[in-house]
Amino acid sequence: MNNRKKEEETEETINQNQNTEEQKAENEQQNEEQEPQNESSEDRYAELNDKYLRLYSDFENFRKRTVKERLDLIQSASESVIKDLLDVVDDYERALNDLTKREDINAQTKEGFTLIYNKFINVLTQRGLKPIEAVGKKFDENIHEAVTQFPATDKKQKGIVIDEIAKGYYLYDKVIRYSKVVVAV
After folding, report:
1. Are 163 and 145 in contact (CB under 8 A)?
2. Kind and range of the H or E element at 3?
3. How many separate domains does the chain show?
4. What tens digit of pLDDT does each residue of 37-87 get?
5. Which residues in the chain come in under a pLDDT of 70?
6. What is the reported pLDDT for 145?
7. Rounded distance between C-alpha atoms, residue 139 and residue 182, angstroms
8. pLDDT score, position 7
9. Could you tell me the pTM of the whole model?
10. What pLDDT does 27 receive?
11. In 2, 92, 112, 140, which residue has its Cα 20 to 30 A from 166's Cα atom?
């Protein structure tokens, strides 16, 4: 009986050893199968992360572009109104020049007109309007329109604006009306 027990125990030990060897082989196969899965999941993660970053940057670009377009729309909407008001500004400036030369109008009236003019110009300046400086500057075809040419008295004066017939204006650094000038040649 003892022999039999020993034989049974030996068989059990052999079976256990075989089972552990089989389990080791199975575990190795599972590990080998999981490694490609891990690699593919890392690749998938990198791919999804890349897509996310691209989508995020596209959205940021879209947001910035729409903000810029909205700002441009607001600025260009006021451009036509301000262009129309430039003729009024010119008339007002001529009236003020005439008013300052006249002696039959009292000083308070002249001062009142000047204050209204300054307030009007300040409002337009706050809206982005800026006059173009022309007299004494070198002629620039990008901001000046030569109406006439006048002979220069010396070589230094050639190409210089000597008189301004109509003032030019910028609106947010964009020329909305060119200065009409007389150029020395």
Report:
1. no
2. helix 2-101
3. 1
4. 566 888 899 999 999 999 999 999 999 999 999 888 877 778 888 999 999
5. 1-39
6. 93
7. 9
8. 62
9. 0.60
10. 61
11. 112
pLDDT at 35: 54
Residues 21, 169: Cα–Cα separation, whole Å: 92
What does the pLDDT read at residue 28? 64
> Facing residues of 171 across strands?
129, 174
Contact 129/171 with Cβ under 8 angstroms?
Answer: yes
Residue 159 in any domain: the answer is yes
Residue 117 contacts residue 90 (beta carbons within 8 Å): no
Closest CA to 184 of 144, 152, 140: 152
In a domain, 138, yes or no: yes
Cα separation, 149 vs 162, in Å, equals: 9
Q: Answer yes or no: is 157 within a domain.
A: yes
CA distance 16 to 31: 22
The rounded distance, in Å, linking the Cα atoms of 180 and 143 is 9
The three-point CA angle 177-136-175 to 5° equals: 15
Residues 6+ away with beta carbon under 8 Å from 179: 132, 134, 143, 144, 145, 161, 164, 166, 167, 168
Q: Is 175 a member of any domain?
A: yes
Question: Strand, coil or helix: what is 153?
Answer: coil
Q: Which domain holds residue 161?
A: 130-185
3 state DSSP class of 160:
strand
Query: What's the pLDDT score for residue 123?
Result: 94
> 174-177 and 169-171 as β-strands: parallel, antiparallel, unpaired?
antiparallel
**b/e sequence 60-71, b meaning 16+ C-beta within 10 Å:** eeeeeeeeeeee
